[in-house]
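Q: My collaborator sent me two sequences in one message, no labels, and asked for predicted structures for both. Can we handle them in order? The first one she listed is below.
A: Yes, handling them in the order given. First sequence, followed by its structure tokens:
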Amino acid sequence: MKLFITDFEDTLIDSDGAIPLSTMIEIDRMRKDGIQFGVCSGKILKTILDYNRDFPFLDYIICCHGAFVYDVINRKVLFKKAIGGSIVKRVHKLYHDKTIYFSTGYDYSVCHEEVVSSYTKNRSLSFLEFYDLNKDHIYKMDIVFDTKKERDSAYDELYELGLKATFIKSKKKKKEYVLEIVAKDVNKTKGLEKICKTQHISLDDVCFVGTCEDDIPIFLSVGISVFLSNGCKKLKKVASMESSSNDTKGVEKVIKKLI
């Protein structure tokens, strides 16, 4: 094994949004043994880098579901693919009455009607102003719906429009159904392939730990695939290993078992 990658949400971090110190120590030990470590997330780059600030432990970050891949050590973007301005504008027009989140890699903004507010820059712009500034740098959109039926209907509608984008159904909170949008053909597996190509690493030399149903393709591609017990049961069927949940240091236990 030369590369260890884990999902971030519900996998490396616990339900309190923290990474246990003992897990960080095990990651550090693994990296000193020459095995590189990275995370895969739907979040923006800045959010994940914040975790790396006090106790550096990351070599790579695959964020925005694979639309943005970053080499932390060399501070280099290995890959990025924006959704495309025309798609952003069209989706906003269709669902302007919904809450829409825009991820631009380093920034995270929320749109209500025609006003877009930035979480990191603490400012608000009209949608058109925001669009003009960021149309070539939006890597992910999240549309929030009140019901599963609404979200699934939007999924079908957007798919039928033939937009060159990938649509991901997810559930962020108990009553918050989300449709995530990234550029066409963007996914975690291709993000991982970018890292492997750069480092001349075979996918057979990769261990991937995950919990989501959309991890199935990447589980089928890597040498070691590990399912955490809090994950989707469909994923368990294609995993080569199983560990305990994210709240009981599942990733740490995998490292101890393999290294």
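Q: And the one she listed second?
A: Here it is, processed independently of the first:
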Amino acid sequence: MNIYVKAMRLPFLTGSLVPVILAAAFSWLHGSLDLGRLVLVLIGVGSLHVAANMINDYYDDPGSDQINLHPTPFSGGSRVIQEQLMDAKTVWAMAMGFFVLGTATGVWLVLTGRPFVAVIGLMGFLAGYLYSASPISLMSRGLGEVTIFLAFGPLITWGTYYVMTELLTLEAFLLGIPLGLLITAVIWINQFPDLEADRDAGKRNWVVRLGRDRSRFIYALLMLGPYAVVLFWVLTQPGSWPYLAAVLTIPIALKAIKILYAHYQTYDEIIPAQALTIQTHLVLGLVLSGALVFQKVIS
């Protein structure tokens, strides 16, 4: 794998870009979609996500990543520093460059008639930076999970919809809840193989606090919660029946839960569950986006 692709963790950008696509479909349903602005949002959100990934590697290098004996393809960081493929200063510099790029796209949107992007973008920047950066290090204080939920769920759909429509609506904020829960599930399951390293490095995330046994139950709730939310939408919003297509993705979520429950005390054997968690997020996001497009076409 290309060193820079590995360092930026590009395959994981679906976590931030799929909510953008979902919100864009929601905007189109309501009669407003600007492709130029959408590209800017994708660049801005993607840049902040890459920056957050790299700043996480930088701050975890002297801590949990150095002592992690069980990294997986989905957890334990990119490993570019530990494998001496890139030094820490380069990782820091690249992170700052992507923060600048993300900020620049936000400034452009502000100057072209979307002033509230300044507020939403600042929240995204702070979430990405303070999640890892000391001395705040939200991930070490039991605040990382809620930060991820908001930053990669409701905040993205709310902000994208605003850029497309100039409207700040509760609907657009709530739209991000299912994907917010699933991206939190991604972070949550990734903390299982990292538990000992996180604990010894002083990262008091919730899997460390609860232990693997109790954390399984929370993981299952995070994986199944999105379907309860979608069902609520179908029952309360007229014409939202296309959302029922979400049930097609339930088998993926259930398979991930089954694997974790069987192998939660292991390391390599939960890797398939980690992959399925990411797949659930990706596929559900695309299915819901497709449902919105279908709703627009038949309306």
